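User: Quick sanity check before I run a bigger batch. Here is a single chain. Can you write out its predicted 3D structure?
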Amino acid sequence: MEDSLWSALQALPPAEWLRRSTLAYLLVNAAHIAGLGMLLGSIITLDLRLLGLFRQAPLQPLAQVLSRTAAGGLVFAIITGTWLFLVNAPEYVGNNAFLSKLLLVSLAVANATFLHSRRHWTLALQEGQPNLPVRIHALLSLLLWPAALVAGRWIGFL
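Assistant: Done. Predicted structure follows.
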């Protein structure tokens, strides 16, 4: 049953089109990388600010812009990544690097969601100074997102 689901997804017209067109695959892959660049560039910059670098930059406006940019990059990366996944779904679901990437991205998103829902985040923005819980989330984020990127690159090597 499970194999037939992945095979059915792989047979969808968007996946077929991507498989048949080298230019389309190249462009979707490049778009995925652009989404990852938006996401990681924003997140790493914000995490470093929360950990004490770039103190001259006011936290609240920087955090608002970078958080929104990261969220946009994440949505773009998920859309393009899902499309790339459809090209060879049965193989990807058995790939440990792919599964590791999904786990790491899920943990990183959960970390960000949890942080943004807590009063520590609101206090840090109001005071312009990150408190210890916010710094811990930033450090965790700084570990999880690059690890997810490495896992994503690892997919092609397994």
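Helices lie at 2-10, 13-20, 22-50, 59-87, 89-92, 96-116, 119-127, 132-154.

User: Great, the batch can go ahead then.
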